[in-house]
Amino acid sequence: MSYRTHPVARIARPLLVAGAAASVALFSSLPAAGHGHEGRPRGEDRLVVTVRDAGGGADGTYEVHCRPSGGSHPDPGGACAAVERNTRWGEDAFAPVPRGAVCTMQYGGPATACVTGTWAGRPVDATFDRRDGCAIARWDRFVPLLPDAASAAPS
To answer: Can you tell me the distance from the alpha carbon of 39 to that of 89, in angstroms, rounded to the nearest whole number?
Structure first.
């Protein structure tokens, strides 16, 4: 009995074809993998960053607008790029360090920051500090949206 005439092949082949067609339909309707910014209206990404105790003249409140970059932030293009590189489709770019994370016991200084606004069509209300290794790493991922506080950290 050949493959084409086998009873299981006569049943399985239409199911495989139907499954493949359904997969193509499903995946063609999903946004492209990656950052997920394709097709978003320009000017939708607006953030307000308030920095305290960072030193070096970095304290203050700054606005950032992306696509195109602008606002009162000292480096709006760099700030937008920092958020962009931390953005993954379906994830909160500004998510806090997960509860129960094991972090090094180091102090990165008194700097704090609050970021509010809208990014990727979602509201943002995030706080940052440098109280331990995880918080320091989270902060540093967002430089230059947040100031490079590592240079102002105590020795």
So the answer is: 14
Q: What is the pLDDT of residue 152?
A: 56
pLDDT tens digits along 23-38: 434 434 444 444 444 4
Extract the tokens encoding 110: 């008194």
Place of tokens 């379906």: 90
Q: Classify 151 as helix, strand or coil.
A: helix
* DSSP run (H or E) holding 80: helix 76-85
Residue whose tokens read 């950290």: 153
Q: What is the pLDDT of residue 1?
A: 58
Query: What CATH code would you report for 46-152?
Result: 3.30.350
Is there a contact between 51 and 58 (Cβ–Cβ < 8 Å)? Answer: yes
Nearest Cα neighbor of 45 from 72, 71, 64 is 64
- Amino acid letter at 135? A
How many other CB atoms are found less than 10 A from the CB of residue 44? 14
Sequence-distant (6+) residues with CB within 8 A of 8 are none
Low-confidence ranges of the chain (pLDDT < 70): 1-43, 150-155
Domain boundaries, the chain: 1-30, 46-152
3-state secondary structure 81-101: HHHHHCCCCCCCCCCCCCCCC
